[in-house]
Write a structure and sequence with these properties.
The chain has 17 helices and two strands. By secondary structure, the chain is an all-alpha fold. The protein has one domain. A two-stranded antiparallel ribbon has the order 1-2.
């Protein structure tokens, strides 16, 4: 193992010990908080180890024509849908008071479409989605810190305007559809899988078109991410073993499978789906209160109550911190952690704008790529499919306008300048 790798491994071990103490201190308030922290760490580790992300499902295939991440996302959705069908059916058949994850079933209305479209543009500018911003920050990407600050700021007006929208006449123009109510549980699964299969076929067809055009670029791992040559004699305590467990990159499909497993784990331990940006609203309110902003309004009553109770008593906050910690540990254990300052002043403005648009869009739509997309579709809410269309159109529009027309899409950690400009 390289000297630098050994140093980072030692730092990772120290970090694990410190995180352990943090988790123990959280348990004195509530054991659930420790579970939130652990699940966040695992999410962050998986996302970084596999370079898995939702924004890349649009951006990667648009830039390179290669859809392995897009296909992995679709398969992940399919696996989660099947698992959630069993959980929902079991709750209903046993007469449970509540269906786990049913809170993700929400109204499909104009706010979901507008918010999803704005969010889609924002994640192209900021270089990542909601969970991606957290993992990128954990990976040392300074741009993610810029995006995150403006993400939490943008979440505040997004939340406030959504409250006003819901009170308006436009808010009455909506439909809330729980697919099993229409098709039954078997039918809801089949309909969902057919839609995913359609998207999978479109992805494959698009790859074929790009291959014919000569603009297809195969995903390539760096040499240090590839499996090492197997030695004749296996040794448990060797660099080969360490590389296999902590350095070798996981493919997108494995990342998606593990995320699906963790999604179900969150449902079973909390009764709620995985979410990210509700906590960002609380972070934004906590931040802006320090600058004299008053949130003593009905729109922010619940938010202020949770902020006053302490952010570290908020499960969503703790899980988001865990995602950052998990990403840090993934790169430290691999000996690859470094701070990334590869951007200029113009990029800073774009990261800030993208972060603000994501924050506003996510809270105006009442969810991001996790809450309004992954959790919604997996829990059979029609509004998740509406958000998917709006998010995708927003992402494509952002790429075509900024990269195609104005040539100002900033580089990201997983899509460097040379990849964008070629």
């Amino acid at each position: 193992m390289k000297k630098n790798s050994k140093t980072q491994t030692i730092i990772a071990i120290i970090g694990i010990i410190l995180i352990g103490f943090f988790g123990f201190s959280l348990s004195s308030s509530s054991s659930k908080l420790t579970v939130y922290l652990i699940t966040g760490i695992i999410f962050g580790y998986i996302l970084t180890r596999s370079r898995f992300g939702f924004a890349g499902g649009i951006k990667r295939i648009y830039i390179t024509g290669e859809g392995s991440l897009t296909k992995a996302l679709l398969i992940m959705f399919g696996i989660t849908i099947i698992a959630m069908a069993g959980i929902h059916w079991a709750a209903v058949s046993t007469g449970a008071e509540a269906i786990p994850g049913y809170g993700s079933v929400r109204a499909l209305n104009l706010a979901v479409i507008i918010g999803g479209f704005i969010f889609g543009i924002g994640m192209m500018l900021a270089g990542g989605c909601a969970s991606g911003t957290l993992t990128d920050l954990g990976e040392g990407a300074i741009r993610a810190a810029i995006a995150l600050v403006f993400f939490v700021i943008g979440a505040v007006p997004g939340h406030g305007l959504r409250y006003k929208f819901d009170q308006s006449l436009l808010g009455d123009i909506s439909t809330t559809v729980y697919l099993p109510d229409v098709f039954g549980y078997v039918g809801a699964v089949l309909v969902s899988l057919i839609l995913l299969l359609g998207l999978y076929i479109i992805t494959r067809k698009y790859e074929d078109i790009r291959k014919v055009e000569g603009t297809f670029e195969e995903t390539a791992f760096s040499d240090d991410e590839l499996p090492l040559e197997e030695k004749e004699e296996f040794k448990l305590f060797s660099y080969n073993t360490y590389h296999k467990f902590f350095v070798e990159r996981w493919n997108f499909l494995l990342g998606g499978l593990l995320i699906a497993i963790m999604f179900v784990f969150v449902i079973n331990t909390t009764g709620k789906s995985w979410g990210v940006t509700s906590a960002f609203t609380r972070w934004g309110v906590a931040l802006l209160q320090n600058f004299g902003f008053d949130f003593n309004t009905p729109a922010f009553a619940d938010v202020v109550e949770k902020v006053d109770a302490g952010l570290l008593n908020d499960g969503g906050t703790v899980r988001n911190l865990g995602i950052i910690f998990g990403s840090v540990l993934a790169l430290l254990l691999a000996g690859k952690f470094k701070f990334d300052y590869d951007f200029n002043f113009r990029d800073v403005l774009l990261y800030a704008l993208g972060g603000f648009m994501m924050g506003f869009g996510a809270r105006f739509a009442k969810g991001c790529n996790i809450g309004a997309l992954y959790a919604a579709i997996s829990n059979f809410s029609l509004h998740g499919w509406g958000f998917l269309v709006a998010l995708s159109l927003g992402g494509i529009a952002g790429l075509k306008l900024f990269e195609g027309k104005l040539n100002i899409i900033p580089p990201t950690r997983h899509m460097p300048k040379e990849k964008i400009n070629n």
